[in-house]
Specification:
Order of helices and strands: HHEHEHEEHEHEE
Oligomer: single chain
Number of strands: 7
Strand content: 25-35%
Shape: globular
Strand order of the largest sheet: 3-2-1-4-5-7-6
Largest sheet: 7 strands, mixed
Number of helices: 6
Length: about 200
């Protein structure tokens, strides 16, 4: 499988919008869901761990999953004994994880997933009863957010349609709210947080 993020991984953490965005998402997740030191969390599309390390400060353990070996390598460089993310480099839709988690978080990864229904059905099986998902991504946009759309399957997400898919896959208590705006020279792009329970 081609690693679309091989070149980007080296300088991924140097962009302040990305770093600040991850902190904003972490804050929004914690403000919506009571994270505790007993929780084990999966970060889907963990990348270099910008969101995962923030959540790791508040929980027992974070497991980071990503298809990009380059991104995972950058994350591993940042691991410390005090703040450690256990990593998996695999496509969990094709090769699901067997363990279950108290919650699954994700930041700006969903638009790279072609089959949303298959994705939500897959992660539903990885969540403990009464566990949660907290997924942040782009609100509907016109395809101009990325300069290269070669591995982008969705130009953001429509609230009603995404909530319908999540509900059809078995989740309940679904909430969708705007949590941030990314300002680019040409226009502004809304970021949402979708939360739901199993």
């Amino acid at each position: 499988m081609k690693d679309h993020f091989k070149e980007k991984a080296q300088s991924w953490d140097e962009e302040s919008v990305r770093v600040d965005g991850a902190k904003n998402i972490a804050h929004a997740i914690h403000a919506t869901i009571s994270l505790t030191k007993e929780m084990e969390i999966m970060d889907f599309g963990v990348g270099t761990g910008l969101l995962g390390f923030e959540i790791a400060k508040l929980t027992k353990k974070v497991y980071g999953v990503d298809v990009s070996r380059s991104m995972i390598e950058k994350l591993i460089e940042k691991n410390t004994p005090e703040l450690h993310i256990e990593t998996f480099t695999q496509d969990i839709i094709k090769e699901p994880l067997l363990q279950s988690f108290d919650g699954i978080i994700s930041s700006m990864t969903l638009h790279h997933i072609e089959d949303l229904e298959k994705f939500f059905k897959t992660i539903y099986k990885n969540i403990k009863e009464n566990g949660f998902i907290a997924i942040a991504d782009l609100e509907s946009e016109d395809g101009t957010f990325h300069s290269d759309n070669s591995d982008v399957f969705h130009f953001g997400f429509d609230e009603k349609e995404l909530c319908r898919i999540v509900s059809a896959c078995g989740f309940k208590d679904i909430k969708f709210k705007n949590i941030n705006t990314i300002n680019k020279p040409e226009k502004n792009y809304g970021i949402f947080l979708l939360t739901a329970k199993k």
